[in-house]
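Supplementary notes (optional reading)

For those who missed the lab, this is the record we used. Protein: Exopolyphosphatase. Length: 302 residues.
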Amino acid sequence: MLSAAIDIGTNTFHLLIGKIESGKIKVIYTKTIAVKLGEGGINKREIMPAAYQRGLKALAYFAEVIKEYEITKVKATATAAVRDASNGLNFIKDVYEKSKIKIEIINGHQEALFIYEGAKASGAINENCLVIDIGGGSVEFILCNKDEVLWKNSYRIGAARLLADFYHHDPLEKQDINNINNHLTNTLKDLKEACKEFKPTKLVGTAGAFDSYREIFTSRGFIKPLDDVFITLENQKLAALMDEIIASNHQQRSEIEGLIPLRVDMILMASIIVKYVIEKLHLNKIVACEYALKEGLLIHQA
């Protein structure tokens, strides 16, 4: 029986239609729409009018697709952009009135659990891992193994939020980068303590920026185009790519083959976060995993 999962994020809305066969996800249909729900309002705790309408339009489209597939089991969740917005509940109400999609607002800890379930289903988690999911509004960290979640937390340091707070020069100046790193140091103290306790040996990056790293690696011939849902990223090449991204301006990033327009600026802040985490936590095995929240939602319905 087919189910549908809808992930309403700060930058993108995702629809996944599929089923679970022999414990694995069989994808029937997937669609991502660049809604930019947090645009202009993420740090004002408000969904701005243009973004609000883009969100309604995207979910109306998803509702039509779900209807075409005659699906009755639908799980739709909203994360930071709706969770934090003063008009988030109005948005949920309007979506239901127009599209009959019931949206559940989930907190950061619930979000982290769904991300873990998605990443685990990919097969990427086979040792003590630190899973990182960089969204527009928040970043989730999950310390885990294939059997359980050892520790988890969600932080309001998403890429769109950092852009709004720190993207004052193009390219970023050294002081801008220092300010971001200081902010990460102040924010992620408990993550460092948890890593001392649980000693992760691998970083698993889910979706978003890690999809972009994978696409750029493929376009540069570092890896072959593969259908695998997770793939190892060579350390030195990833470090060099992140340094290139952090030093570049908007125009230079827009010319990077494999980087979609939506992520041209988001990848900048994501790279600062990933570089910080790898260096501070001394992680030298890096995996890019396609599965994340929406796959976890689909598994939850099985």
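If you only remember one thing from this example: The first strand starts at residue 3 and ends at 8.
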